[in-house]
Write a structure and sequence with these properties.
The chain has a single domain, classed as 3-Layer(aba) Sandwich (Rossmann fold), CATH 3.40.50.300. It has a 7-stranded mixed sheet, with helices on both faces. By secondary structure, the chain is α/β, with parallel strands linked by helices. It is globular, with a radius of gyration of 16 Å. The model has no long low-confidence stretch (mean pLDDT 90). The structure holds guanosine-5'-triphosphate (GTP) and magnesium ion. It holds the Pfam family MMR_HSR1. Belongs to the TRAFAC class TrmE-Era-EngA-EngB-Septin-like GTPase superfamily. EngB GTPase family. This is Probable GTP-binding protein EngB. InterPro entries: G_ENGB_dom, GTP-bd, GTP-bd_ribosome_bio_YsxC, P-loop_NTPase.
Protein backbone atom coordinates (compact mmCIF):
# COMPACT_ATOMS: atom_id res chain seq x y z
CA UNK A 1 0.00 0.00 0.00
CA UNK A 2 1.26 3.47 -0.84
CA UNK A 3 0.71 6.19 1.73
CA UNK A 4 -0.57 9.21 -0.15
CA UNK A 5 -1.68 11.26 2.81
CA UNK A 6 -1.60 11.15 6.59
CA UNK A 7 -3.09 13.83 8.76
CA UNK A 8 -3.81 14.37 12.42
CA UNK A 9 -7.57 14.52 12.95
CA UNK A 10 -8.31 14.87 16.65
CA UNK A 11 -7.36 14.10 20.22
CA UNK A 12 -10.00 12.95 22.65
CA UNK A 13 -10.41 12.03 26.25
CA UNK A 14 -14.02 11.10 25.76
CA UNK A 15 -15.33 8.37 23.55
CA UNK A 16 -18.47 10.30 22.60
CA UNK A 17 -16.40 12.75 20.61
CA UNK A 18 -14.54 10.32 18.38
CA UNK A 19 -14.93 10.56 14.59
CA UNK A 20 -17.98 8.74 13.24
CA UNK A 21 -17.22 5.03 12.98
CA UNK A 22 -17.51 4.78 9.22
CA UNK A 23 -13.90 4.04 8.26
CA UNK A 24 -11.73 1.08 9.27
CA UNK A 25 -9.62 1.84 12.33
CA UNK A 26 -6.44 0.33 13.83
CA UNK A 27 -5.39 1.04 17.39
CA UNK A 28 -1.73 1.03 18.45
CA UNK A 29 -1.14 0.26 22.08
CA UNK A 30 1.66 -0.97 24.28
CA UNK A 31 3.66 -0.14 27.35
CA UNK A 32 4.79 3.39 27.65
CA UNK A 33 7.87 4.20 25.56
CA UNK A 34 7.57 1.01 23.48
CA UNK A 35 7.64 3.08 20.28
CA UNK A 36 3.98 3.52 19.30
CA UNK A 37 4.27 7.07 18.06
CA UNK A 38 7.55 6.32 16.25
CA UNK A 39 5.96 3.36 14.50
CA UNK A 40 3.05 5.48 13.33
CA UNK A 41 5.48 8.04 11.91
CA UNK A 42 7.48 5.30 10.22
CA UNK A 43 4.42 3.67 8.65
CA UNK A 44 3.11 6.96 7.35
CA UNK A 45 6.56 8.29 6.40
CA UNK A 46 5.81 11.47 8.30
CA UNK A 47 8.31 12.28 11.01
CA UNK A 48 6.43 14.68 13.24
CA UNK A 49 2.95 13.23 12.80
CA UNK A 50 2.68 11.52 16.17
CA UNK A 51 4.60 13.14 19.00
CA UNK A 52 7.46 10.98 20.22
CA UNK A 53 9.48 11.50 23.35
CA UNK A 54 12.19 10.16 25.61
CA UNK A 55 9.84 10.69 28.53
CA UNK A 56 7.41 7.83 28.98
CA UNK A 57 3.74 8.73 29.12
CA UNK A 58 3.81 11.35 26.38
CA UNK A 59 0.68 10.14 24.58
CA UNK A 60 -2.21 10.85 26.94
CA UNK A 61 -5.19 10.98 24.66
CA UNK A 62 -6.87 8.97 21.95
CA UNK A 63 -5.27 10.46 18.85
CA UNK A 64 -6.82 9.84 15.45
CA UNK A 65 -4.80 10.03 12.25
CA UNK A 66 -6.55 9.77 8.91
CA UNK A 67 -4.56 7.87 6.31
CA UNK A 68 -5.20 8.06 2.56
CA UNK A 69 -8.51 9.60 3.48
CA UNK A 70 -9.94 6.14 4.01
CA UNK A 71 -8.68 4.59 7.23
CA UNK A 72 -7.59 5.59 10.72
CA UNK A 73 -4.60 4.88 12.88
CA UNK A 74 -5.20 5.54 16.56
CA UNK A 75 -2.34 6.28 18.93
CA UNK A 76 -3.32 5.29 22.45
CA UNK A 77 -1.57 6.21 25.69
CA UNK A 78 0.90 3.63 26.97
CA UNK A 79 -0.15 1.28 29.73
CA UNK A 80 1.95 0.42 32.75
CA UNK A 81 3.32 3.89 33.20
CA UNK A 82 4.47 3.77 36.81
CA UNK A 83 4.73 7.51 37.39
CA UNK A 84 1.08 8.38 37.05
CA UNK A 85 -1.08 8.03 40.13
CA UNK A 86 -3.09 4.93 40.69
CA UNK A 87 -6.28 6.90 40.29
CA UNK A 88 -5.38 8.33 36.90
CA UNK A 89 -4.17 4.92 35.81
CA UNK A 90 -7.53 3.44 36.72
CA UNK A 91 -9.33 6.19 34.85
CA UNK A 92 -7.12 5.58 31.84
CA UNK A 93 -7.86 1.89 31.96
CA UNK A 94 -11.58 2.39 32.11
CA UNK A 95 -11.53 4.81 29.24
CA UNK A 96 -9.29 2.74 26.95
CA UNK A 97 -11.05 -0.48 27.74
CA UNK A 98 -14.38 1.12 27.03
CA UNK A 99 -13.06 2.37 23.70
CA UNK A 100 -11.60 -1.02 22.75
CA UNK A 101 -14.76 -2.92 23.66
CA UNK A 102 -17.20 -0.55 22.01
CA UNK A 103 -15.59 0.98 18.96
CA UNK A 104 -17.51 -0.66 16.16
CA UNK A 105 -15.13 0.22 13.31
CA UNK A 106 -12.05 -1.03 15.18
CA UNK A 107 -10.60 -3.70 12.89
CA UNK A 108 -7.56 -4.75 14.81
CA UNK A 109 -5.41 -3.77 17.78
CA UNK A 110 -1.66 -3.67 17.28
CA UNK A 111 -0.12 -4.69 20.59
CA UNK A 112 3.40 -3.31 20.58
CA UNK A 113 6.07 -5.24 22.41
CA UNK A 114 9.66 -4.17 22.96
CA UNK A 115 11.74 -6.77 21.11
CA UNK A 116 14.62 -6.28 23.57
CA UNK A 117 12.73 -7.64 26.53
CA UNK A 118 11.77 -11.04 27.83
CA UNK A 119 8.01 -11.61 28.07
CA UNK A 120 6.43 -8.97 30.27
CA UNK A 121 3.43 -9.67 32.43
CA UNK A 122 1.72 -6.39 31.52
CA UNK A 123 1.83 -7.30 27.80
CA UNK A 124 0.60 -10.84 28.34
CA UNK A 125 -2.20 -9.68 30.65
CA UNK A 126 -3.32 -7.13 28.13
CA UNK A 127 -3.38 -9.75 25.33
CA UNK A 128 -5.42 -12.07 27.54
CA UNK A 129 -7.89 -9.32 28.20
CA UNK A 130 -8.25 -8.67 24.45
CA UNK A 131 -8.69 -12.39 23.84
CA UNK A 132 -11.33 -12.68 26.57
CA UNK A 133 -13.31 -9.88 24.97
CA UNK A 134 -12.96 -11.23 21.46
CA UNK A 135 -11.11 -8.13 20.24
CA UNK A 136 -8.89 -8.99 17.23
CA UNK A 137 -5.22 -8.20 17.72
CA UNK A 138 -1.78 -8.76 16.24
CA UNK A 139 1.61 -8.40 17.91
CA UNK A 140 4.23 -5.94 16.76
CA UNK A 141 7.75 -6.26 18.13
CA UNK A 142 9.45 -2.87 18.10
CA UNK A 143 13.02 -1.51 18.11
CA UNK A 144 14.49 -4.52 16.30
CA UNK A 145 17.45 -2.36 15.17
CA UNK A 146 18.65 -2.09 18.75
CA UNK A 147 20.11 -5.61 18.89
CA UNK A 148 21.13 -8.56 16.73
CA UNK A 149 18.56 -10.53 14.75
CA UNK A 150 19.37 -13.58 16.83
CA UNK A 151 18.57 -11.75 20.06
CA UNK A 152 15.32 -10.41 18.61
CA UNK A 153 14.23 -13.88 17.57
CA UNK A 154 15.13 -15.25 20.98
CA UNK A 155 12.84 -12.73 22.62
CA UNK A 156 10.08 -13.29 20.07
CA UNK A 157 10.29 -17.01 20.75
CA UNK A 158 10.23 -16.39 24.48
CA UNK A 159 7.09 -14.37 24.08
CA UNK A 160 5.45 -17.01 21.89
CA UNK A 161 6.21 -19.64 24.49
CA UNK A 162 4.71 -17.58 27.30
CA UNK A 163 1.73 -16.89 25.09
CA UNK A 164 1.10 -20.57 24.35
CA UNK A 165 0.77 -21.32 28.03
CA UNK A 166 -2.58 -19.57 27.86
CA UNK A 167 -3.63 -19.49 24.22
CA UNK A 168 -3.92 -22.26 21.64
CA UNK A 169 -2.10 -20.35 18.95
CA UNK A 170 0.19 -17.39 18.55
CA UNK A 171 -1.44 -14.44 16.80
CA UNK A 172 0.00 -12.96 13.66
CA UNK A 173 3.05 -10.86 14.47
CA UNK A 174 5.41 -8.36 12.90
CA UNK A 175 9.01 -7.48 13.68
CA UNK A 176 9.63 -3.79 13.16
CA UNK A 177 12.09 -0.96 13.49
CA UNK A 178 11.12 2.66 13.17
CA UNK A 179 14.78 3.41 12.67
CA UNK A 180 15.29 1.38 9.47
CA UNK A 181 11.70 0.75 8.32
CA UNK A 182 11.87 -2.98 8.94
CA UNK A 183 8.38 -4.48 8.86
CA UNK A 184 6.76 -1.49 7.18
CA UNK A 185 5.64 -3.27 4.01
CA UNK A 186 4.26 -6.23 5.94
CA UNK A 187 2.23 -4.10 8.34
CA UNK A 188 0.82 -1.97 5.52
CA UNK A 189 -0.02 -5.03 3.41
CA UNK A 190 -1.88 -6.50 6.38
CA UNK A 191 -3.87 -3.30 6.92
CA UNK A 192 -4.62 -3.09 3.21
CA UNK A 193 -6.02 -6.59 3.22
CA UNK A 194 -8.22 -5.95 6.24
CA UNK A 195 -9.40 -2.63 4.77
CA UNK A 196 -10.59 -4.58 1.73
CA UNK A 197 -13.00 -6.55 3.92
CA UNK A 198 -14.42 -3.55 5.80
CA UNK A 199 -18.14 -3.00 5.77
CA UNK A 200 -20.01 -0.39 7.74
CA UNK A 201 -22.05 -2.21 10.34
N1 LIG B 1 16.41 2.71 17.89
C1 LIG B 1 15.08 2.82 17.92
N2 LIG B 1 14.51 3.70 18.77
C2 LIG B 1 13.15 3.78 18.77
C3 LIG B 1 12.34 2.97 17.92
N3 LIG B 1 11.05 3.27 18.16
C4 LIG B 1 11.06 4.21 19.13
N4 LIG B 1 12.30 4.54 19.50
C5 LIG B 1 12.68 5.52 20.55
O1 LIG B 1 12.01 5.18 21.76
C6 LIG B 1 11.54 6.34 22.45
C7 LIG B 1 10.04 6.27 22.67
O2 LIG B 1 9.37 6.29 21.42
P1 LIG B 1 7.86 6.80 21.26
O3 LIG B 1 7.50 6.50 19.83
O4 LIG B 1 7.68 8.17 21.77
O5 LIG B 1 7.12 5.77 22.25
P2 LIG B 1 5.57 5.72 22.67
O6 LIG B 1 5.24 4.27 22.84
O7 LIG B 1 4.74 6.49 21.72
O8 LIG B 1 5.65 6.41 24.10
P3 LIG B 1 4.46 7.08 24.97
O9 LIG B 1 3.56 7.83 24.05
O10 LIG B 1 5.22 7.96 25.90
O11 LIG B 1 3.80 5.96 25.68
C8 LIG B 1 11.98 7.52 21.58
O12 LIG B 1 13.19 8.02 22.10
C9 LIG B 1 12.16 6.91 20.20
O13 LIG B 1 13.10 7.61 19.41
C10 LIG B 1 13.00 2.07 17.02
O14 LIG B 1 12.40 1.31 16.25
N5 LIG B 1 14.37 2.04 17.06
MG1 LIG C 1 3.38 8.03 22.06
Amino acid sequence: MQIRSAEFKCSNTRTEKLPPPVLPEYAFIGRSNVGKSSLINMLTNKKGLAKTSQTPGKTQLINHFLINENWYIVDLPGYGYAKVSRKSREEWERFIRYYLKNRENLQCVFVLIDSRLEPQKADLDFCFWLGEHGIPFVLTFTKADKQSKVKTLQNVNGFKKAFLEYFEEVPQYFITSSENQEGRDDVLAFINEVNGRFEIS
